[in-house]
């Protein structure tokens, strides 16, 4: 039974932006395109292409913005400038500004890439100014976090945004191995049913999709690009990142589930398994979470523009 049976409605929200399936085209210098950034699409122009370690990358310029916002991206973040892509852009923006969204729809910075927002607004809207907190419960359930996991989220935020430290990569155990160990633990307790395996596989796949778009602090972006996009071979985030980033995804899941097309029954099932997973992380916290992060170094900090 494929993990998509449970996670299809949730993952579709991300793959519409991050994935470029069926849209794998060559892009030419001067071509107008759409670029995925976070959960939205933005208009841009391809400035030039470059090949590094057999991987083609494109330097793009966001239309209407100064050159300092230009960035180099891989083809999987680009979409052809078609009516279909334009409609997708509208649909994604409509979801962002819907009344059900927590943020006030009068916010003037809605719809802008996180790094383009005004600094005083970016702190909270981009997630760097306040530590992540568990999303509110829904009719289908909620994810309960022990106080030690809440403290982990705060320390994680402080290490990165305040102390300019990074999670050393690759992590051991990785997200992938953590989920496998969780399944093994449940198997020994006689509760590793098929649904549990589906949720674990779906969470692993979803982590690979979501990490680069919603789970990183700005300060971690260079490290992410170096590790994930700087390799000549494909690298899955779930094989490199660990419990610190998995926990960030877990606290976002309630909001993502509410906005997904997953049925109430599937959402309830996922909530149940996620609560079991958080208990596992709490119980094994000293083994899976780092007590201290690594200093980023002056060269890295200079590249980020942080002070």
Q: Which CATH C-level class of the largest domain is it?
A: Mainly Alpha
What is the fold named in CATH at topology level of the largest domain? Enzyme I, Chain A, domain 2
Give the percentage of residues in beta strands.
Answer: 5-15%
Which structural class best describes the helix and strand composition?
Answer: alpha+beta
Following the backbone from N to C, one meets helices and strands in this order, namely: HEEEEEHHHEHHHHHHHEH
Q: Quick one: CATH superfamily of the largest domain?
A: MRG domain
Shape: globular
State the low-pLDDT regions, or none: 96-126
Could you give the distance between the termini?
A: 50 Å
**Biggest sheet, in brief?**
5 strands, antiparallel
Overall pLDDT metric: 79
What is the count of DSSP helices, taking H or I runs of 4+ residues? 12
In total, the number of strands is 7
Number of domains: 2
Subcellular location: Nucleus
Pfam families: MRG, MSL3_chromo-like
GO biological process, one term: chromatin organization
Main location: nucleus
Report on this structure:
One of its GO terms (cellular component) is histone acetyltransferase complex. The structure is a single chain. This protein has 307 residues and is an alpha+beta fold. The chain folds into two domains: 116 residues, Roll (SH3 type barrels), CATH 2.30.30; 181 residues, MRG domain (Enzyme I, Chain A, domain 2, Orthogonal Bundle), CATH 1.10.274. 47% of the residues lie in helices and 12% in strands. The strands form two sheets. It has a five-stranded antiparallel β-sheet with strand order 4-3-2-1-5. A two-stranded antiparallel sheet has the order 6-7. Helix 5 runs antiparallel to helix 6. The longest helix has 21 residues. The radius of gyration is 19 Å and the shape is globular. The relative contact order is 0.15.
């Amino acid at each position: 039974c494929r993990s998509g049976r449970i996670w299809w409605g949730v993952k579709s929200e991300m793959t519409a932006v991050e994935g470029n399936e069926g849209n794998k085209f060559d892009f030419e210098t001067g071509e107008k395109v759409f670029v995925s950034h976070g959960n939205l699409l933005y208009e841009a122009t391809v400035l030039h292409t470059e090949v590094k370690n057999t991987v083609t990358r494109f330097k793009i310029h966001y239309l209407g913005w100064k050159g300092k916002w230009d960035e180099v991206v891989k083809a999987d973040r680009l979409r052809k400038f078609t009516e279909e892509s334009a409609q997708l852009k509208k649909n994604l923006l409509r979801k962002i500004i819907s009344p059900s969204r927590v943020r006030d729809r009068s916010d003037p910075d809605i719809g802008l890439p996180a790094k383009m927002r005004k600094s005083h607004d970016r702190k909270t809207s981009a997630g760097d100014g306040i530590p992540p907190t568990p999303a509110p419960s829904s009719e289908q359930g909620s994810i309960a976090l022990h106080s030690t996991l809440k403290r982990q989220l705060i320390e994680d935020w402080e290490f990165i945004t305040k102390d300019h430290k990074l999670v050393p990569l690759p992590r051991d155990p990785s997200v992938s191995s953590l989920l496998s160990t969780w399944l093994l633990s449940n198997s020994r307790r006689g509760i590793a049913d098929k649904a549990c395996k589906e949720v674990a596989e779906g969470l692993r796949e979803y982590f690979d999709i979501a990490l680069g778009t919603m789970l990183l602090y700005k300060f971690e972006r260079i490290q992410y690009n170096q590790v994930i996009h700087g390799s000549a071979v494909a690298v899955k985030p779930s094989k490199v990142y660990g419990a610190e980033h998995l926990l960030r995804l877990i606290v976002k899941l309630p909001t993502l589930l509410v906005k997904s097309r997953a049925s109430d029954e599937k959402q309830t099932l996922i909530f149940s398994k996620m609560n079991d997973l958080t208990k596992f992380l709490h119980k094994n916290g000293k083994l899976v979470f780092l007590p201290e992060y690594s200093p980023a170094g002056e060269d890295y900090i200079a590249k980020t523009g942080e002070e």
